[in-house]
Design a protein that fits this description.
Elements lengths: L23 H13 L1 E3 L13 E3 L2 E3 L3 E2 L2 E2 L12 H12 L3 E3 L4 H8 L5 E5 L5 H13 L4 E5 L12 E2 L2 E2 L5 H9 L5 E6 L2 H10 L3 E4 L12 H11 L6 E4 L6 H9 L4 E3 L5 H7 L1 H21 L13 E5 L2 E4 L1
Parallel strand pairs: 4-14, 5-6, 6-7, 7-8, 8-11, 11-12, 12-13, 13-14
Antiparallel strand pairs: 1-15, 2-3, 9-10, 15-16
């Protein structure tokens, strides 16, 4: 069954849901439980107001909280509104990185024309010429980076997935290297959930990875933040940049992920309802609040800037036991 046929709690016409969906209830349960069992040590003496600015893809942004790589939100837009364009407008106003998932070149161009610094994430199409064409198109239309969803190969029937009638296929290490070498832009492997894939992405020459399971593509997938420290350790000194998404719904969630090794995070479904109900303004309001929460946590822990996050302030709760991550 193609992913777009799955039932979903997302707003919108029945059967018309974004291709970013997965085993959402299962994913939310494990992600949420893990994040909520991470506790924070307080260090307030000498703490001062923090600086949230950061560098991503070699450019300066206001915050390490980025937009998600949504796809096909035009299917759930109402009253002629295009949510894909609206959250790009929010990213531009917030001066944060915008991410875009599976869209045609025509749709991508409309989003890119907003002027937000945008990463284009491409599906692993079985036809590699489509991938190469979309990489080139992203380059020509000012993308800050380009990448591929390495985790979106399998459908719910146990075969390669088919999305909007377009067959997807495997991601071989040699293929990934070919895509990296096809562009001068930074290349991102999105959907890394193991040290094994992180090392292969590094070997292929990827500039960055997104530690993610696409909000539940794999049933009972490990929470991305849980595997993040081991991936961070495995990539130490490699120069590969590490981002995280899945269930990052508050600035407190973002704080925990940043402490455990992410350089930036994507907010994901936390912006969905504000986006569909209030458009750009809803997204700006949501992310602004997340930035306030992030600043609050940094101030509580004497973390002065986005280069100073440390796992030392994070403990994982196991019953009544508390251990450093």
């Amino acid at each position: 069954m193609a992913e777009t046929e799955r039932k979903s709690p997302w707003p919108g016409p029945e059967g018309l849901i974004p291709v970013t969906s997965g085993h959402m209830d299962d994913a939310n349960l494990h992600n949420r439980n893990y994040l909520d069992n991470l506790l924070v040590e307080m260090r307030v003496i000498d703490s001062e107001l923090p600086d949230l600015s950061c560098e991503i893809f070699g450019e300066k942004f206001n915050s390490p909280i980025m937009m998600p790589a949504f796809s096909h939100l035009n299917k759930v837009g109402e009253d002629g509104k295009d949510p894909m364009v609206l959250y790009a407008e929010a990213a531009k106003e917030l001066n944060t990185v915008n991410w875009v998932g599976m869209e045609s070149n025509e749709e991508y161009e409309r989003i890119a024309n907003v002027g937000a610094r945008t990463v284009r994430i491409i599906k692993p199409f079985v036809d590699h010429e489509i991938i190469m064409d979309q990489i080139k198109f992203a380059e020509e239309h000012g993308a800050i980076a380009v990448g591929i969803d390495i985790d979106h190969i399998v459908g719910t029937d146990g075969k390669y997935d088919v999305v909007d009638g377009i067959p997807l296929g495997p991601i071989k290490a040699d293929d990934l290297k070919k895509y990296v070498n096809a562009t001068k832009l930074p290349f991102v492997a999105k959907g890394v959930l193991s040290v094994s894939d992180a090392i292969k992405a590094r070997a292929a020459g990827c500039y960055a990875i997104v530690v993610s399971h696409h909000h539940g593509r794999i049933p009972f997938g490990m929470p991305p933040v849980a595997v993040l420290p081991e991936i961070k350790k495995a990539l130490a000194g490699s120069g590969v940049h590490i981002f995280v998404d899945c269930s990052i719904d508050t600035g407190i969630d973002a704080f925990k992920a940043l402490c455990l090794g992410a350089e930036a995070v994507s907010v994901g479904r936390g912006i969905l309802n504000p986006l569909l109900k209030e458009g750009k303004e809803g997204v700006v309001k949501k992310v602004t609040r997340m930035n306030e929460e992030l600043s609050e946590m940094m101030l509580y822990t004497d973390i002065g800037d986005t280069r100073s996050f440390s796992p030392d302030v994070i403990y994982v709760r196991d019953g009544m036991k508390f251990e450093h991550c």
